[in-house]
TrEMBL record:
Residues 56-381 form the Amidohydrolase-related domain. Keywords: Carbohydrate metabolism, Hydrolase, Metal-binding. It comes from Lentzea cavernae. Pfam families: Amidohydro_1. SUPFAM superfamilies: Composite domain of metallo-dependent hydrolases, Metallo-dependent hydrolases. It comes from the Bacteria. InterPro entries: Amidohydro-rel, GlcNAc_6-P_deAcase, Metal-dep_hydrolase_composite, Metal_Hydrolase. Gene3D superfamilies: Metal-dependent hydrolases, Urease, subunit C, domain 1. Belongs to the metallo-dependent hydrolases superfamily. NagA family. Signal peptide: none annotated. This is N-acetylglucosamine-6-phosphate deacetylase.
Length: 383
């Protein structure tokens, strides 16, 4: 899906429409000038129509944690590779995403941020997420432990300055020296402070949340496990109403029961599905590089070469959505909120819901909940 058919003014009819208030079984969505003009049920308004023939209409998916896809990673300084990665996910219904970067030395990471900032300004991606280098070596996962460092004010400032307002989220382990101050620094700069890759106790997590940390980076994964005598970061983050929890719903990182328990406890307003996808997404098995570390993908599961540590995923948001509904027991409304609405709310974007006045980012799903058509800002994405 690399060419665009131009903006359309049309009413989509003949299918289910998933709205924040519920599912309209005989619904319609009108698009005018790149925005949603109206949403309703029953007879469609006069004007051009497109019959989606029994499909399910949902808002475009919003992925706030994605490292690449289509054989390309967001660490590349080549704009065409960044566009390729974004296009690979757009084919699967992701109309908005953050480009996530992994741990590298701060000067190198600043260069990557600077290059990606141009892609944000161009509209290829909605912003930048830094997953590292301010992480715990004890829970580093697929991050090079030799490069990890504490979130010193000068390092954080250097990365924010490189992004010129395009860095939207940074993940920090709250037990590191200076972490609470760094969280305040991010919040003061309108950047989401996320907690992840952490071996913290519950007592170490609380001050960071009090300082403004509001996202749990892929809850359960890269964290001290939940224990009934020491809840750790999982218990602290899941139980705090100020924190939105990311869930990698590929059924590899998390068992369906874990997804369901977390989503049910956090509720609509605090659950967001992510992919944590690497370049292998939409490509297949093989050998890949993540932040200088070799990753092998076998049967769609990426792990560090020579070890068992998971290294991102090959997930796409449409698959996460299907898994949430078919395997984890979420309703269409719940899955839509988690795959689209909550991410858009976190980023303060005018998308993520089928609601009049918002951007016409729309996905038409078939009977198996697979994307049949994708619209971005009122333009159909063509193969």
């Amino acid at each position: 899906m690399s060419t665009w058919g131009g903006p359309v003014d049309v009413t989509l009819t003949g299918g289910r429409v998933v709205t924040p208030g519920g599912v309209l079984e005989n619904g319609w969505v009108s698009v005018r000038d790149g925005r949603i003009a109206a949403v309703g049920e029953g007879a469609a308004p006069d004007g051009p129509t497109t019959d989606v023939a029994g499909g399910t209409i949902v808002p475009g998916f919003v992925d706030i944690h994605c490292h690449g896809g289509g054989g390309a990673a967001f660490t590349s300084s080549d704009p065409e590779k960044v566009r390729k990665a974004a296009a690979a996910h757009r084919k699967h219904g992701t109309t908005t995403l953050l480009a996530s970067l992994v741990t590298r030395p701060v000067p190198e990471l600043a260069d990557q941020v600077s290059a990606l900032a141009e892609m944000v300004q161009e509209g290829v991606v909605a912003g930048i997420h830094l997953e590292g280098p301010f992480l715990s070596a004890a829970r580093c996962g697929a991050h090079d432990p030799a490069i990890l460092c504490p979130p010193e004010q000068t390092s954080v400032t250097k990365l924010l300055d490189a992004g010129k307002g395009t860095v939207r989220m940074i993940t920090i382990a709250p037990e590191l020296e200076g972490a609470v101050h760094a969280v305040r620094q991010l919040v003061d700069n309108n950047v989401l402070a996320a907690i992840g890759h952490t071996d913290a106790t519950e007592a170490q997590v609380r001050p960071a949340v009090d300082a403004g940390a509001s996202v749990a980076t892929h809850l359960f994964n890269g964290m001290r496990p939940l224990h009934h005598r020491e809840p750790g970061p999982i218990g602290a983050l899941l139980d705090d109403e100020r924190v939105t929890v990311e869930l990698i719903c590929d059924l590899v990182h998390l068992h369906p029961t874990a997804v369901r328990l977390a989503a049910r406890h956090a509720g609509l307003q605090r659950t967001v599905l992510i992919t944590d996808a690497i370049a292998a997404a939409s490509v297949g098995d093989g050998v890949y590089d993540i932040g200088g570390l070799e990753v092998r993908v076998v049967d769609g599961v990426p792990t560090l070469a020579g070890g068992a540590s998971l290294a991102g995923s090959t997930l796409t948001m449409d698959m996460a959505f299907r898994n949430a509904v078919n395997s984890c027991g979420l309703s269409l409304v719940e899955a839509t909120h988690a795959a689209s609405t909550r991410g858009a709310e976190l980023l303060g974007l005018d998308t993520g819901k089928l609601e009049a006045g918002l951007a016409a980012d729309i996905v038409v799903l078939d009977a198996e909940l697979k994307p049949r058509d994708v619209m971005v800002r009122g333009e159909w994405v063509k193969d």
